[in-house]
Amino acid sequence: MSKIVVDQVQKSGGVALTLPTADGTNGQFIQTNGAGQLAFGSPLIPDPLPPVPSDSPLIYGSVFTASARGNIYSSGEWTSSGPNSTYQNATAAGSNATYTHMSFNMFLGDGVPNGTSDIVYSGDFRGLEYRTILYSNGNRLGHNYRELFYYENNTSYGGVSWHVLPVRNTTGASITRTLNFMYSAYDTYNGAACGYYTPNASTYAATTGGTWTQGFTQASNTITSSSISVVVPANTTVLVMLVTSHNYQTTYYFKESSMFFGLSTFFGTGLVCDLRMLNALALLRTPTATAAVSKPEEIYTGCATVYGNR
């Protein structure tokens, strides 16, 4: 028996294909470099993350986290008034840097992200959301007059909620538009606020920081609606954060309102809900955040790494 050893194979009139000089490993296949050179290669490993749909006027979404306590008091099993200092919700969307840092960290799941404390500053009661994606059916998004009962709390201590909506400008010019929302508040500490984070770069990957702009604050006992003016720079995604308190009704009984509405008026003509950023807010972490400093910019750079830059 004899064998023929060749370095190249060629069909009449076709390109000469150079064969590999050594065998591959089990499961590999022959692939080409597009210039006639063949080699053994391994199958591509599928992306472990589900694909994110393209931004569409048919999809509005936000990420929602809630806590059973206002993170403001010292009582019973909860012995701290906040992850960094006494926390006041009414200025926690841009007006007060300390409260805003705590607020964004708690929205992501814990006010002490790199600490050793056993206290978890959100998702700390049965049934409450922890970075849950909410989707709009029509033109409103979130909770309106939700009833809550906190038997573990002191009788009149409620909770707080954080609601973040990623808004992307797809045009080459800045857009300013009015965003409507429902909110609940109770007092100076358990108040409500709404503001937005603007990155310092127009692409995810280039973002190294940003600024918060607070357009609304409330520190009195109410459940009603309001609005803010949101400025979205050209080709940029901003994060609108609505922070609300669970309004005290009677012993252990509270009502919560945290809802964006009129979204078909706000979105459209250049503004979309950024679905890449929506998923990033629900999944990613901020590795260098501390109890004193939040890192929204790391959500942007992480989004570029995981879902692609833009």
Secondary-structure map:
Layout: E1 8-9, E2 17-18, E3 29-32, E4 38-41, E5 61-67, H1 97-107, E6 132-135, E7 141-149, E8 160-169, E9 175-185, E10 192-199, E11 210-218, E12 222-232, E13 237-245, E14 247-250, E15 253-261, H2 263-266, E16 271-273, H3 275-283, H4 296-307
Antiparallel strand pairs: 1-2, 3-4, 5-6, 5-8, 7-15, 8-13, 8-16, 9-12, 9-15, 10-11, 10-13, 14-15
Q: Could you estimate the helical fraction of the residues in percent?
A: 10-25%
| Distance, first to last CA | 61 Å
Q: Label the structural class.
A: mainly beta
Number of contiguous helices: 4
N-to-C order of helices and strands: EEEEEHEEEEEEEEEEHEHH
What is the number of E strands? Answer: 16
Poorly predicted ranges (pLDDT <50, ≥5 residues)?
none
Overall mean confidence score, pLDDT: 88
State the domain count: 2
Q: How much of the polypeptide forms β-strand, as a percent range?
A: 25-35%
